[in-house]
Amino acid sequence: MTKGLKGGAGVPDGQGGNFRYTFHGDPHATFAAFFGGTNPFEIFFGRRMPGGRDDEDMEIDGDPFGSFTSFNMNGFPRERNQVGSQIRRKQDSPIIHELRVSLEEIYNGCTKRMRISRKRMNPDGRTTRIEDKILTIEIKKGWKEGTKITFPKEGDETPSTIPADIVFVIKDKPHPHFKRDGSNVIWPVKISLREALCGCSITIPTIEGRNIPMTINEVVKPGMRRRVIGYGLPFPKNPDQKGDLILEFEVSFPDSIPPSSKEVLKRHLPVS
Fold it and tell me: What is the DSSP string of 88-138?
């Protein structure tokens, strides 16, 4: 049997006139080997009209073997756009949570532990149970607002979907003294008009808890800035280096001044 299958397409064997045949895996080639042509209707009806119709106007499919299952060279059926019996599950959209952190936590780094409740499948594969889990988040020094921390597939389980990712997004907590500007920290300084014109001494707080004294002798204009190098937040990629602490001056003007003071100012202040 094996020897017979190793030969060519269906041809008579020289010994005893036996017919031997090799399976091609292609129904068109099989038909051609037996009947000497590729049109299965031509040998029965003789004539063909253009477009695949005979003179009795019988319709013929363009591929008469199109509905047959094709086979590979081992004799097993080939899959024709066959989808496996297993259903392809789609993952749920990410679940986003804001994680509020203070500037001090960003300066020093910290650890946050977040409790979540999610559905988990029971062993029967149909029912679910509620399960709590603690997610641990290591806040690195200098992380910027908008930094995302992702916990893959920690969302609800269902029979038909893949659990969603849990994503925490870093958000800065409002600070009573400072505003953040990237890795720099801005400290708004309020001084009086007299201090702005005549000079003053101030004490500058820092995020790390130190106080820096500063004497200002120059005239301070509203909105003027002074920079204290290296007293800002750590750089995320190089925590050993830090941004700057920026002093932003706000000058408070009096609502009114007595006439005698106006005369003194007129005599001493420049016209322009």
Answer: PPEEPPPEEEEEEE-HHHHHH-EEEEEEEEEEEE-TTSS-EEEEEEEEEEE
Q: For residue 206, which of 105, 102, 104, 101 has the smallest C-alpha distance?
A: 104
State yes or no: pLDDT of 6 exceeds 80. Answer: no
Signed CA dihedral, 123, 129, 134, 135: sign only: positive
Residue 86 CA, chain-centre distance (Å), reads 27
Q: How does pLDDT run across 194-203, given as a tens digit for each residue?
A: 999 999 999 9
DSSP string, 205-268: E-TTS-EEEEEE-SPPPTT-EEEETT-SPEETTEEEEE--EEEEEEEEPPS---HHHHHHHHHH
Region 91-101: what's the mean pLDDT?
Answer: 96
Phi, psi of 191, rounded to the nearest 5 degrees: -130, 160
CA distances from 137 to 97, 99, 133, 169, 248 (A): 13, 10, 13, 11, 34
Q: Measuring CA to CA, which residue among 6, 3, 39 is closest to residue 23? A: 6
Give strand pairing partners of 136: 113
* CB atoms inside a 10 Å sphere around CB 183: 18
Phi/psi of residue 118, nearest 5 degrees: -145, 160
90 band by pLDDT with thresholds 50, 70 and 90: very high
Of the candidates 139, 238, 224, the one whose C-alpha atom is nearest the C-alpha of residue 183 is 238
